[in-house]
Amino acid sequence: MRRFQLIGCVAAVVSLVACERTVTTVEETVQPSNCFTCHSDQNTALVAAEQQYSFSVHASGLHVTEPNDPCSGCHTSEGFISRIETGIIPTGLQNPTAINCFTCHAPHTNGNLSRRLEDPYPLANAVTFDHGGGNMCTACHQSRRNVNTYVITPSGRVNMNFRFGPHHGPQTDILTGTNGYEYPGYTYEQTNHKLATEDGCLDCHMKVTENLRVGGHSFNMAYDDGTEELVNTGACSACHGNMSSFDYQGVQTEIDTLVANLRSALVTAGLVSASTGLPRTTSTSSDSAGAVWNYMMAIEDRSRGVHNRKYMRGLLTSGLQYIQGTLPASSSVATRREGGGEGSR
């Protein structure tokens, strides 16, 4: 109060004597009160996070190859921040930066290390994923295409090319057990992972280890430096006990086999290239394209079944059976329930 009284007195005196000098004051910001609120030589957690992050794919900058709309909304820091805070994906970004600390956190604005996105984020088929800290990951790590409109078309025909399928990284769809191409009459089961984790992705991918290259802010479940491969199986031990690999009870062996079998059938059917393993440029039925969609979901998920073994098994098996003509109780895609997705079996 005294400071403001003093300023008032000075201003009055200045006005009386017609002095041209002005008196100004600088107010201190409330949060953070000073730099050492976040930075100190005692806070090694921030140093560790920075060092872990240096081993992440995000930090590599390899994904900053699509700086234009709509790709910049996930492939650049500036685009991501704009998309989740304003709903606008910028175009023509100059000197875009890779995903970094300030992409997910705004400590100098918020005065803390809270995440920019806390609310549940909807998937392309309108199913909502709500797993606390993992909600941040969902904004990008999803198929970003709705199988019910992308594969199921009014004409019942789909034009495919090598870009056909879910966008890279449909991990949230798989973990949630939704947005696969589900054939009528087939029962799709679920693994309990989505219910066993409070913060979804973060509970496993950020499980801190004694090595900077896996877990923590590296987000890596495995890291191969050319001499050895590190695996963060400790993230699984709370539920599954000690493990030496992620092939728990043969989950990855099973899914790898199903992927290989479906790929072979799709190649024979002329729907997938034998050389690249990607969809061929062709026109086919929604049911046939659905088998390709499920195959690409498994490829792009990259967990080889760990995220949701039962759902992945169902998608691959039903797709394989359809292509082979052995799908039980198979019916026309026209009978599919409107909306599809989770709960529409």
Q: Can you walk me through this structure?
A:
There is one protein chain. The protein has helices spanning 2-17, 44-53, 57-60, 72-75, 77-86, 101-104, 107-110, 135-138, 147-150, 171-176, 193-196, 201-205, 237-240, 251-268, 286-301, 309-324, and strands at 121-122, 128-129, 157-160, 222-224, 229-231, 282-285. With 345 residues, the chain is mostly helical. It has a two-stranded antiparallel sheet with strand order 1-2. A hairpin with a 5-residue loop joins strand 1 and strand 2.
Q: What layout of secondary structure does this protein have?
A:
Blueprint: H1 2-17, H2 44-53, H3 57-60, H4 72-75, H5 77-86, H6 101-104, H7 107-110, E1 121-122, E2 128-129, H8 135-138, H9 147-150, E3 157-160, H10 171-176, H11 193-196, H12 201-205, E4 222-224, E5 229-231, H13 237-240, H14 251-268, E6 282-285, H15 286-301, H16 309-324
Antiparallel strand pairs: 1-2, 3-6, 4-5
Helix pairs in contact: 14-15, 14-16, 15-16
Short description:
Helices cover 37% and strands 5% of the residues. It contains 16 helices and 6 strands. The N and C termini lie far apart (68 Å).
